[in-house]
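subagent[fold] <- orchestrator: predict structure for attached chain, return tokens only, no commentary.
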Amino acid sequence: MHLIKYKFANGTTIEIEVTDKLYNIHLELLQQEKRNHWKETRRHSSLHYFMENRNT
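subagent[fold] -> orchestrator:
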């Protein structure tokens, strides 16, 4: 059994005990979310980034 920490919108957190199968699905979803975030930030640069680096 594994523990997953869940944070609610109001700031409270709870740890939920889940089976190994559900925990592996949870880890896979987290990894997928990281990949999607990396893909989006790689393709789009913020104006703030360009303003900081325009003098170099």
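orchestrator: received. Logging for downstream: The chain has a mean pLDDT of 86. The helical segments are 20-43, 47-53.
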